[in-house]
Amino acid sequence: MTRTLCIIRWSAFALIGVLAAAILVTELRPRGEPAGETVAVPGGITLGGSFHLTDQTGRDVTDADYRGRWMLVYFGYTNCPDACPLVLQKITSALKDFGPLADRLVPLFITVDPARDTPIELANYLQNFNSRIIGLTGSSEQIATAAKVYRVYYAPNQADKSGAYLVGHSSFLYLMDPAGRFDALLPMDSSADELTIVLRKKISRKF
């Protein structure tokens, strides 16, 4: 285990505990309350920042390349058996309902499994979802840096009972405004329709 990954794991654990509590509050939201809420992030916590990665076409990109549009950032990997495809399906559903508003949003799928998720693998995987979703990969160090600024926990080289190679990771959607600043942590218990309402409300605002 590298020193960089150790630092990310332990620094992220504290935030995960806090966010888990915040998500529990969201899950306990009374039924019938209007959708469109976000998960509260404790004061003093900074999420998001600079990254330098490679997209699924092989082009080097940074966070600055997406200025002027809202970024919807999710960390996952192509061999993820459950959470990742579910989130991407929700994003795909939301984008279909946005119409012209979709141009204001750029969804980013940042891998936490760079050893296997090459640009080609990401491109093939994302064909199953909306073409607007951009896959990003890079060296282990580049992924570690991106995960650190978003306080994402991930633990590669895990195996389930069948022996399949898994990467444990936190699962949150980060919404960054057109200036690259953190705007909202979106509730992961939302249905595709609720996610659409949340995002539409956010990206419809003048900026």
Task: Describe the model.
This protein is α+β, with helices and mostly antiparallel strands and 207 residues long. The chain is built from 5 helices and 9 strands, in the order H-E-E-E-H-E-H-E-H-E-E-E-E-H. It has helices at residues 3-27, 83-98, 119-126, 140-149, 192-203; strands at 52-55, 60-62, 70-76, 105-111, 134-137, 154-159, 165-169, 173-176, 182-186. A 7-stranded mixed beta sheet has the order 2-1-5-4-3-8-9. A two-stranded antiparallel ribbon has the order 6-7.
Please tag this protein with its features.
alpha+beta; seven-stranded mixed sheet; 207 residues; disordered N terminus; Glutaredoxin; 34% helix; single chain; 22% strand; two-stranded antiparallel ribbon
